[in-house]
Prior knowledge:
Layout: E1 7-10, E2 20-24, H1 30-34, E3 42-49, H2 68-85, E4 93-103, E5 125-138, E6 141-153, E7 156-168, H3 170-185, E8 220-221, E9 227-230, H4 238-241, H5 249-268, E10 275-284, E11 295-300, E12 304-305, E13 311-321, E14 324-335
Antiparallel strand pairs: 1-2, 2-3, 3-5, 4-7, 4-10, 5-6, 6-7, 8-9, 9-11, 10-14, 11-13, 12-13, 13-14
Amino acid sequence: MTVHSETTPVRQPQDEEGARHLIHCPSSWEHYLLDAPSLGEEHFVLVGDLPVRHPLFNDGPGHFHDAQLATEAVTEIGAFVGHRYFGVPEDRTGLFHRFTLQLTELSAWRADSGASGGFRDGVPRIATEITAIPTNIMNEVPRCLELRLEIRIDDILCGRGSAGLIFLMPKLYRKHLATSRRVLREAPELADLPEGRPRPARPIEVGRSRPENVVVSEPAADARGRLSTWLLTEGVSPVVAGLQGELTGLHLLEALRQTAVLAAGRTAGLDPARCTLAASEVDFRAQAALDLPLRCLAVPGPRTHDGHGRPAVPVTLTVTQHRRAVAEARLTVVQDL
């Protein structure tokens, strides 16, 4: 029998529309009643209405619900789960080092799927089931969490994924940041700079409408068929850029998505207005500094078709800063029929 604890509201970068709640579903009351940290896997459900007026997730052609919503939600609650339910000290910073997501039922992600009957005001509801598994436990405190995800829209299973989270002690985290910045600045011979001020890509080519939601530059192509963009950090929406003066996970993931869509459109003729990422695998390699340029190199594969005959293009991407890898990704862009 599954027991549900009280729900925990999750912050949204918007008004009450689209608010989410995290529900803890412990298999036993033992740790919960004693307020003792768990040493085994725990289960949660993150639920809420899909937003309809979000400045980023609802910006674009509107053919699909934005799968970035699920990505952003998990990265937001990951550290909270570690601190609240597994006893990780609050001063330990949680950093994601891996994220994967695969859309298993594309029809549920269509904005006009009509699957929302029966819910409040006909607004589709998204539920992300999360299994959190503590790993690398020392002195009954995990240093890492493995998160396994199942996503449902209006009760239709439409996505599966996973994420890896590591918690760093304050001294180690400060050393991590200092080392990253020192490496970047002490090797001027590795400097990788754009020629002049990067010009933003056209919003329509990256699946957005508002210029402030474009976070990559107009791409440049080389003789080997690779495309590269520069990540834009000035003049972008605060929803993407955040308020801490550091590169946010959403900013980086959105840059990867936009570059992949650009590459699929430029090299294989896919229509960005009808595209989404059917599969994503992202590995975060290093900390980035916002005051140094970031390049995203895309290597598109051949145009193929998925199991339903939809055009699909695999794209391998690498984000670098001073030629040092910040993130590596393997994305599949698919165009709806």
